[in-house]
């Protein structure tokens, strides 16, 4: 039950930023073909604890979503660095390790994501 308050805060922050996500559509510039990085970040809710704590287990539902996004490294990077992720308290330095922690064979190794490089 310890994660419950964190989850409620995360969901609240995500809902708040969904209302302003249209402001970022111009900035998205096609990183995520059918959506904005903030909208795609909503799909990564199962990854919240793993993106804040490098020692937290990464759930199979998180890995499934990351695998889908990982097919487009530009989108995955934009999501990890999105306003939604920042508002949810996601640590990009930890979040960037999730594809490797999921042991995704086809992850975009070496892709430069802002100041970070996908391991």
TrEMBL record:
Domain Bifunctional inhibitor/plant lipid transfer protein/seed storage helical: 18-109
UniProtKB keywords: Signal
Gene3D superfamilies hit by this protein: Plant lipid-transfer and hydrophobic proteins
Endpoints of the signal sequence: 1-28
Biological processes per GO annotation: systemic acquired resistance
The keyword Methyltransferase is assigned to this record: no
GO molecular function: fatty acid binding
InterPro entries associated with the record: Bifun_inhib/LTP/seed_sf, Bifunc_inhib/LTP/seed_store, DIR1-like
Pfam families the record matches: LTP_2 (PF14368)
The UniProt record lists the keyword Secreted: no
Protein name (Swiss-Prot/TrEMBL): Bifunctional inhibitor/lipid-transfer protein/seed storage 2S albumin superfamily protein
Native source organism of the sequence: Perilla frutescens var. hirtella
């Amino acid at each position: 039950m310890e994660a419950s308050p964190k989850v409620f805060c995360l969901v609240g922050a995500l809902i708040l930023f969904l209302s302003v996500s249209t402001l970022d559509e111009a900035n998205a510039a096609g990183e995520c073909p059918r959506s904005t990085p903030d909208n795609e970040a909503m799909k990564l809710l199962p990854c919240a604890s793993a993106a804040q704590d490098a020692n937290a287990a990464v759930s199979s539902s998180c890995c499934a979503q990351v695998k889908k996004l990982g097919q487009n490294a530009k989108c995955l990077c934009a999501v990890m660095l999105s306003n939604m992720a920042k508002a949810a308290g996601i640590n990009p330095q930890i979040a960037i390790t999730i594809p490797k922690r999921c042991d995704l064979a086809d992850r975009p190794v070496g892709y430069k994501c802002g100041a970070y490089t996908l391991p």
